[in-house]
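Can anyone check this?
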Amino acid sequence: MKIVKIILSKEAKEVYDYLNKMSLESKQERMILKAINYKFELIKNNFQYGDAVAKNLIPEEYSLKYGATNLFRVELPAFWRMIYTLNESNNQVDIIAFVLDIIDHPTYNNKFGYRKN
């Protein structure tokens, strides 16, 4: 059985750390952080847990910056999203779920080119 490792990008780590800090004071940040940690466990148990994003919809930013050829979206409370890609590690035993972004809904819509009606 392959082991799934969760690694956060610099940007995702910054948001995660911010949520961690703010969770002491804010119920909403605490709720989002709790959901992220829960989703990490779900991804470890099923690395294809999230909704697969069609290859033609992968933002160029993710392809260029991270070499992402696949993308999964996980919904979080308060319309936040977690975006991750999968890579096999060098030893061919582990799968790396590389979390690219933890973003709010307006930022998600902007990155994926969705327009507000």
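Reply from J.R.: I decoded it. Residues 3-111 form a domain with the YaeB-like fold fold (CATH 3.30.2310.20).
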